[in-house]
Amino acid sequence: MKIGIFDSGIGGLSVLHEAYHQLPDQEFIFYADTEHVPYGLKTPEQIIGYATEITQFLIDKGVDAIVVACNTATSVAIKGLRKRFDLPILGMEPAVKPAVEGTDDKRIMVIATPVTIREDKLKDLLHRVDEHHRVDLLAMPRLVEFAEREEFESPDVTEYVNSQFSAYDKSDYCALVLGCTHFNYFKPAYRQYFGEKTLLIDGNDGTVRHLADVMGLSISPDKDKKMDDEHNILCLRNTEYFFSGKKVLDKETIKRLQRLHLRLEQVRNI
User: Fold this and answer.
1) pLDDT tens by residue, 210-236
2) Least crowded by CB within 10 Å, which of 47, 114, 117, 135?
3) φ/ψ bin of 62: left (φ > 0), alpha (ψ from -120 to 50), beta (otherwise)
4) CB 158: neighbour CB atoms within 10 A?
5) For the segment 91-110, what is each residue's pLDDT rounded down to a tens digit?
6) What per-residue confidence (pLDDT) applies to 61?
7) Which H, E and C letters describe the chain, residue by residue?
8) Annotation says 174 is catalytic
9) Which listed residue (29, 108, 180, 217) is catalytic?
């Protein structure tokens, strides 16, 4: 089975990487819209146009299902994509429900792009699941820029993360929800700020499990086994990568993808 996964940039690799763990025998096409990243600062009309074009591209490549591995694109475009195209299209949304249901009565922070925070999809989700109004929303758009530069633990990243959180009392929070797939690369920075007791929650595990359920696929019994460097390299062999419609073939970009997968492996269980 061939699964298409797309994002505005390299954030969606975190979803693909989780799929490598849970569905290692499947084929994948990963599409990063690097010419238009970041989506979080684009208009809804622009995002819908990009998402529609990419979806058609992936269908033309013969995928059996598509994962919109971008919270921003999901919030703006998913309804229209499902109406227009006749195949399973799965989206991402901030993992607010498991955060609310799996924690005590302390507060929950959701970090996301400005578009995700502004759109009705997240507001509707909070209305359904945040009965006691425990959730705070915080836009952190510069993390997308840092991620695209592979700048994960620099002084500038630390300063930005700390300054964004500084208006809140970190002792009030039991969970931090990562509402953008780009944000997974920065788990050490969140952990350093909030400490060990605050849960870090993203939607990747749930999204891949939902994909497996929809497509009738079995989750690997070795999904929690740590990948080594060689395995990361092998994973690239059952995936075609496209950057804004151009197939990735050059050694430099392939090495970059390997570095990014290695980073995701290192931070996966933080």
Assistant:
1) 999 999 999 999 999 998 887 777 788
2) 114
3) left
4) 15
5) 998 999 999 999 988 999 99
6) 98
7) CEEEEEECCHHHHHHHHHHHHHCCCCEEEEEECCCCCCHHHCCHHHHHHHHHHHHHHHHHCCCCEEEECCHHHHHHHHHHHHHHCCCCEECCCCCHHHHHHCCCCCEEEEEECHHHHHCHHHHHHHHHHCCCCCEEEEECCHHHHHHHCCCCCCHHHHHHHHHHHCCCCHHHEEEEEECCHHHHHHHHHHHHHHCCCCEEEECHHHHHHHHHHHHCCCCCCCCCCCCCHHHHHHHHHHEEEEECCEECCCHHHHHHHHHHHHHHHHHCCC
8) no
9) 180
Residue 118 identity (one-letter amino acid): R
Q: Which of 119-123, 173-177, 252-256 has the lowest mean pLDDT?
A: 119-123
- Whether residue 207 is predicted with pLDDT greater than 90 in this model: the reply is yes
In the numeric block, the tokens 């989506």 are attached to 39
Distance CA 46, CA 2 (A): 27
Residue 237 has pLDDT above 90, yes or no: no
Instruction: Specify the amino acid at residue 228.
Output: D
Structure tokens that stand for 34 in this block? 């690097």
Annotated catalytic residue within 68, 70, 109, 117: 70
Per-residue tokens: 94: 């901030």
